[in-house]
Every structure is written in structure tokens, then in C-alpha cells.
Amino acid sequence: MRKHKWLASLLIFSLIGGLFVGAAPIVTAETAAVTASEAAVEDLGIPIQTAQTIDAAYGQEDGANVVYTTVTGSASSGEYATFNVIDVDNQKLLRSLTLTGVSNAWSHLVTPDGRVFIGASHKMFVYSPATKSLTDLGRPLAGTESIWSLTSDENGNVYGGIYSASVGGRVFRIDAQTLEITDLIGGPVDDGTAPGDDGKREDYVRSLAYYKGNIYAGTGSTNGRIWKIDPTTGERTRIELPGSPSDPIYNGMYDKMGAVYGLTAVDRYLFVFFNGPFTMHVFDMEAGQWTDAAFTNIRGMQAATGYNNGKLYTSKRDKQMWEIDVATFTERPVMPFDGSIRNSQWMNVANQPEFPNGAMVTISYDGRVVLYDPPNQLSKALPRVVSGQGINIQTIETGPDGKIYLSSYMGTEGSQYDPATSQFTNFPLGQSEGIGSVGDTLYFGLYPKAELFAWDTTTPLPTETGPAKIFEIGQEQDRPFVVTEGAGKLLIGTIPGYSAFGGALTIYDPEASAQSGQPEFEVFRNIVQDQSITGLLYKDGLIYGSTSIFGGLGDAPVGARAKLFVWDMATKQKLYEWEPELGGAASLPMISGLTLGPDGLIWASANGIVFAFDPDTRQVVKSRNIYPDVTNYGKWRPVHQRWGSDGLLYTDVGARLTVVDPETMGSTLMRDKVQLFTLDAQNRVYVVNATKVLRYPPAAKPAPPEEETPVEPGPYKSYLDIRNGGFEEVNADGSIPGWSIRSSAPDVSSFSASTEQKRSGERSLKLVDASTTVSSAMQSDPVKVKAGREYVTGVNVFLGSPPVNPATGQPFSSSRTSVLVRYYDAAGKEIAGAGSSSNIQAPSGQWIPVELASTAPAGAVSLRVVLICSVAWVTTAYYDEVSVHTIVDPSEVPVVAIEPEAADVAEGDDVHLSVKATEGARILIKEGDELLAEGMGAGETPVMIAVPAPAAGMHNYTATAIVPGVAASEPVQASTVTVHPYTELQLEAPEGLLQAGDAITVNAYAVYGPLKYDVTGETVFSSDSDEIIRIEGSTVTGLAKGTAVLSASYAGREAERSIVVTDYELVSVRIELPEYEISIHESIEASVYGRYENGIPGREVEKLLTEEVHVTAKPAQRVRIKGLTITGKSRGSAIITAEHAGKRAEVQLTVIPPGHGKHRDHVSSRQVAGISQIRPPG
């Protein structure tokens, strides 16, 4: 385990960081302790409790039909989800078992041997009907955030699909016998690289099915497809969609299919539900091709379910349950059904005479078992036998009536709290992301689909019906987190749906809606391109807004930093967009919490910063980084900032409930880990703690922040990089990264990463040596050192029971071991007589700290730590927390600063980083734990380091400076770099029509988000008509009248442009002279123009003629003409005539003696029979 002295490091950087930036005084983060004692905090209880069930599976247990389902809990509050076994025949709960560490379960599966596998949040569990017990299998794959789907083969091996934003959508396998879990293909199912794919990784495996040795995986959520996977080889094949992108069934969403939300395998057919266009298609797994069957308007958690007598059932958005005949693929509505169909199974349920032929058994969202007989339009909800649990609160807001309103996460209920009576009253309400009011009316913004509901608080609370739906925002909007009032209108800020970018400002007019009898609202999307709206505030006819760089789930952000903007309500236009100056925040994913202060300033929050800006100048005038450790905060849920009647600002900046004095910027932390709170009229603070509501008394006024004098840091321990010193990493073959065997003997020496004993973490190194005639030793990889420095090696050693003596069959008397430090020169040769050693012989059965000090001799460049059992000794020993440190002065610690050359980079290009570091220091560029590039520091001179062609998405790089053998800087993070995928090929050409015989140049540009590159030279151009245009490189020449389609192809993308070639006809010519009086011997140049028409009004053109133009004069002796040059010869007037292609034009020219003044009269012209007559006026 690597050790750090964080405080010392921070203080060092505050001093020696002045190499690149000016020093600044250190301000304390907090000036007072928590204001309210625990005794003063009131627990108001759990307002919303329900038996929320998402999925179910079916089986038999002890002769009874049973339903297996999970009731949602709240892992954050310690009230975990519960797995339930329900006896359907006798309508009773057989048992309820806790799923430790998880909140819900989206998938249940009964395998052929009757075991039940449960995909619960990020963990897998298995239930045995034989032992009635539950086994926790843990997180199946590193990076798993949720488990969406399960299936099994005929041998009972289980396959699961995960969602992961970090490692992508993957499939894991659980061995039926050993329960060992493996990554089926060792990577994401859809990594975007398959032929015809869109280049984007999909993070969901939303559905799974199994058929004859193959797994079928449905991905999403951007543009999901089905993938056929061979579980033996891991080979996968993408199954393309049926038909063409223009087929009406796709509704223009062929490349935006969303997720394969459900897969149902029946016989040879796979029913596939896409939730983008809400369509279901049928794939013949035997033939390996799509059938012609397609079903529209699908709704539900499954594609289809309840197979019985050749029929399947699905739900549609028309609020009907539909029956599908599997033999003919015909469908018909069979009964009303306003819900999302869930996993169902036909069972012969006892004690149900209304269902003599069996019932389709399913689970409802509120924990009830429901029986259906769709052909006979029968349904029956059985009494609920599972217990409800507290549901996490999603929103809390104070209404215009002074009462507190709440919604629940994935819930069906909201709650009203009356401070006067201390009573909660619940009412029907979906998952409301935001709550706001206009006048007496309370508005609720619901997820999904960004629906708005309303209730007049002067009328009784609708405890039976809930608030009324008034409209749906549309335009791909999904989550209305911001709901507030402005100028008598409702302002709504939203996050878009899955894999979409571009939130929206929606303005709803209640007064106009009341007059018209229908909702009157306007939606303005992408006010800040590709960003979502997380803050809105109205002031003086303008709406001030703030954004998050994130869009819907399923794709990395496009923009790098959040923005502020100003929207003019009258003109319906954005006036300004900018990034506030917040002291160089390295990352800025969200700005939110917009509120108008009593000082007339607009207050907002970003990361751990609370700031205020002048609405007129848009300049930040007050700012304090209250929590400097919060550096990358926010995604969708805005920070809430509310003014108390005491003039204090209450905020949950950085998820920490804090009160701020706006005058002094002093602050007090009230409670950590708070993202939801509100105030009542008495300034009491209502805080959401998972499922509970707590009430705090009003806060005291914080003291002003104090400046602290930096403490001069002294020498400290600098830990060198010894790889895997905690032995947590283990290779698949059992070898240990960072360590190698120095000496051993077969059958008597063994080395392993063991979980039997550990000082920290999960593992330690176990060494067993059962022979007194051999030496068994493990050595570290070389650790860089500097000659002349002292190094201290630390190891924790645990002496276990001695091994058995093969000769006697009895254990040896004791375990003994040694720790050695050895030094090496540049050639890798051990330096004799250098280093140190320590022998450990007692005590046994406990961890013993060992330290060895040694000085690196002349010529030394590295050391190794050796863990050894010497000849004549035997041992069973464990080693952990191996470290090497040296004492350094702060002046020896290297410093580093990093900044990307550009915030936006095209996919395929390198990212160039400008790095300043201590001269001679080794620079390491990393993303996470992955080393990407290296360089060498040059002091004040920046060095450019390239990260080779990173994948599309947002990247946060760090730079560390290392002086080998001495010290390393702490990692310094660069500003976020966004690598944009290649999304479009654009063509640019001169506007207008092309005349036969003329040529134009077409330019091609590859578009990478905000970047555009000229790729004309690498683009292949072609035409659908070689008779109309000719293409040579990027030059297009018109050949004959007509329209041709110019096609361009570059790097897998294509673009088209219509080229119209016309035959223009010369209708007249015009001659123009720079002067109409010239002196004898004076020369002028005539210009002759041709006017062309092509029969299309407004398409006439005039061209300067330079060839085949004949100019004459009458009388000829008046001037001399050479080409278009006219020179005066004798005094008098002449008619100058220009001829071209049978058309003539004339002008009059006067020649005067030298020295005479010229008349600067204007001339008039008129067109007569194709000849331009131009004469002096009069």
C-alpha cells in the first residue's frame, strides 16, 4: 500500500508552486463547526413507503406455485432491497431475504435446476429453493453499475448483461457448478468498430436470450443492435436491421434505435423490441434472417411475454394488451391494459376457479401478484403479501401555501408535509425531478418524457387522482430538473433523453392557456449547443440560464465546460453566452443554483464555489471556493440555493449543506452529503436523507473567513514508486506483477498472492519454504535511487505456522524469514557489500513492522527489496505494505503544470499537451492509472507531449513530475479535452448554376463536432451522370444541360450535392468606357460585357468578354484601335462599336485637342434590338 503525506504535499505546492504562478494567501474552508447539535435535529420520518417491484420470475417450491420478486429499498439509507418468495396458490409470503448493499433488482432468472439468480443493482445473488438460502456473488465485473438482463443455457450456466459508463456494456458468465464469474468476450459487446457501425460504444446490454449454443445480446441506448455471440470462442456478429433506413416503420430513427429493450425467444423466433421507434421485429434464429413481421407502438419492460397455446402477449401505447399468433405473426387487441407489460408466465394457480385453464401470472409495480386470462378479458389482482419499504426522495420544494412537497425515486407517490400540523399526506405522483409554482398553482416536472403536471393549491389535495397532466415538452426532452417562475410564466429547464444532447428552455404561459383552453408553451432547444439546462432565473425581461455539459445517459459529453447565458423573452433570442471567471477551475461540468440576491446580484454555484455576478456587466463580483477539494461536481441535479428571511444564503454546494453570509462570504457547514433541501417561513431547513426528512433549526450567521499564515513545511517522507507493494494485483497465471522469483526449488518453494492474511487491502504475499537446504526468495522490480541518499524500506511480516517436515511428517519448530535491500549499478549488476538486511524469527501469529535503513552507494541507480527464507531456515510467511521512502526537503520536490494545446480535438488526431516541469524531471502523462506518454522537464520552457489518437469522448489527463530516487509531485490535472468523433462530410461549392463548358471547384470538409477539416484531396468524388458533368479531382465541369448528383466519400461517410448545368443564351452585349472624352494621343481600355439568360426568371448573368470581341470606330480615322485599347488620333466624335457572337453595342466617344478641359457628363443608355445605345445626355 502506497503512503502519502497529503497535508505536507499541499503545503509544499502552495510555496514552491510559485515557479509558475504567483503565491496567494490560504483561506480556511470552514470557519465554524456544525451549527446544530444532533439533539436539535428533528427526524420527521419516512414519508413515502411502498412495495415497489420491478421484475419477477416463476417456479415451484415444495409443491406450490411461487413468484420470486424483489421489493425496492434504499442502499444509501441502509434499508436494502428484499428478495421475496410468494406462494401464489395460497396467497402468502413464504420468506423475505435481504439483498445486502443494493437498492433494487431489474432481472430474475430461474435456471433448469430451480435456482434463482438475481441481478440486483450492481451485484449478483443466487437463491437456493432447496436450502432456502441466499448467496451474495458480488459485483460480476469491474465497472458494473447495474445488471439489466439474465439468461441461461441448458446446462444452467447464467449470462448477464450490464450497464457501465466506464467499461461499456458487457456480458458476464456464471459457471453453473463453481459460480465463477468471467467476462464472456473480454470487452464491450458493441465497441463501435464493427463494419457498418456508427463508431460509438454502447454502454448497455439491455436484453439477452439463448438459443442452440448462442447468446443474443441487445445493446443500447443510442443506436442498439442485436449481437450473436458464441460463448465458447467469444466471437460476436452484429445483426443488421431488416429493410432499409427509409422504411416507414423506423420513423426516421434507423440510426437512433435507442436500446434493444427486450428480447423474447419463442421456438426458433426472437422477438426484438427497440424503444427508439417503439417497434418490435422478429428474427428467425434457425434461418439466420429477419422475418417480414413487424409490430408498432410497443410499450413495456419486455418485448413480449406469457407464451401459451401458440400465443404471445405484449402491451402497446394505445393502452391495450395485444395477442400475437406466433405461427402467423398476426396480432389483435384482447383487453384494456394501461401499463408496461412485465415478465409473465402461465401457471395453473390453485384456489382460483375463475381461471380454470390457468392464468398468465405477473407482478405489478406495487408488489401485487396479478392473474390474467387475456383471451377471455379476465384479470385479478391478489392481495399484497410483501412488505413495503421507504423509497428514496427525489425532490423537495416549498409550495406557495407554505407546505413542503416531495416526490419519490421511481415511485408512484408524492407527499405533502404541513409544518402547522406536522403531518404527511400522500398523493399519486410519478418521479418528479423538479417542482415549482406560478401564483397558487404548483407544477411538477416528471421523468420520463418531460411531462408537466399541475394542481391549484387553493383546492383540496388530490389524494385519489393526483395532479393533472397538462402537457409533454417533446423534442427528445426527458428530465425537467428546473421548474421556476418568471414574469407570470413557468420556466422549465430540461435534460434530453437517452444518448441525446441539447437540453431545452420551455416557457409555459398559464394565462394564455386558460384563455385558449389548451396548453400554450414554446420550446427552445440547444440554447447552448449540446448542453443541458440546470439553472434559470428571470430578471427585467431577461432569462439568465446555466448549463451542464451532460446530455442523456449513454454518451459522453460533447462540450468541455458549462456556460452561463442570457435569453431575451421578447425577441426569443440568446443575447450572450459565456464562462464565468472562477479562478481557473480545471474542470467545469455544471453551473447551477441561480438565484437573485437581496444585493441585486445573481448568485450561482460550480464545483465547490459559490459566486455572484452583476446581471448588467456579467462580471463575477463575489466568489469563494468554499470547498477546494470539490473539483468536478455535477451532472443533472442542480445545486439548490435559497435565501432565508434572515438574509443568509443556504446552499447544497458540492453536496454539502452550507449557510453563507453574502456580505463577508463566511460560511458554516451544516451537514455533509446533502443534495436536497428546502426552507419554510421560519427559516427551518428540511433536509432529505435518502428516504427520510430531517428538520434543522435556522442557522446562525457565519463568522467572516479568516486568513491563515502558511506554515513553513519541513522535511518529510517521500515514498518511491514500488509497484504492487500491497500484492493486490495478480496475473491470470498466479504470478505477481512487480515481483519476480529470485530463488526457489520445486516442490518445496511456493509463492502466491494470498487472502489468508492481510495487513491491509485484500491480499498479501505468501511464501512457503519446506526445505532447510534451499533458499526461497522473491524480489521487487528495480526501484530508482540516487547515489548518496539514505532510503528506508518498510515491510509488514506475518509468521505463520511452520510447514511440515517431509522426513518426519511433523511441523518444523518455527517459521523464520529475512528482508534484504540490494543495490545495483547501471548495468544491472548487484553492488557487493551494499544494502541492509533484517531477520525475523518471532513473534508468530501477528503482523510485525520491519524497517531497514541504507545508503545508496556510489554508482547505484536502483535497489530491489528481497523477501527471503534462507538456507537452513523454513517458513510460512506473509508480507504486505512494502514501501521505500527517503527524507526530502520541500525544495527537492519537482513541480509541474499542464495545459492542453486545444480543448477540442478531432478523433484520430493526437492530443498535444503543454507541460512545464522542473528541469530534468521525468514527466508522466496519465489518464486514470494508464500511462499514456512521457517527457522531460525543461524548467520554465514548456515541452509539448503528445497523447496518441485517443478515443472519442472527454479526457482528463494528469501530469506528474518525478525526480527518480528523490520525490514525485502530486498529479496535476489538465483542463478537460474533448475528442470529437467524425460525424459528417460536408461539401462546399460556389452558389448558382453551372454553365456548360464552365468549371467549379468543390471542397470537402470532415466535421468533428465544432471542428472542420479540409479533406478535399483525400475525398473520392463521383457522379450519377457522366454526360452532364465531368469530374477531375475536385474540379467539376459542366458538359450538358441537366441535373447530376455529385457524390463524395471520405473515411466511411458520404455526402451528396446536386449540380445543375444550364445552357445560357447570349441575348445582348454592352460596351463600357472609362472616359467618354479623351485627348489626342490619350489611350483608354474598353470593357465589353455579355448578358446571358437560361429561361429561368432571376437567373440572368452578365460576364466580362475577353475573347472573340471585335471593336471598330466610325469614322475610322478618329481613333486607333488595337484589341480593346482605343487611342485618340484627331479632333471630333466617333461611334465605337463592339461585336460578339452576332450581338452589337455602340457608344459615342469624343476626341479633343490636348490641354482642353473635359466635360464630365453622365451618359444614359437604352437597349434596342439587342444593341446597347449609349449617348451623352441632351
From TrEMBL:
Residues 1-23 form the signal peptide. InterPro entries: PQQ_b-propeller_rpt, WD40/YVTN_repeat-like_dom_sf. The keyword Metal-binding does not apply. Residues 744-754 have a biased composition (Low complexity). Residues 744-763, 1153-1178 are annotated as: Disordered. Keywords: Signal. This is BIG2 domain-containing protein. It comes from Paenibacillus abyssi.
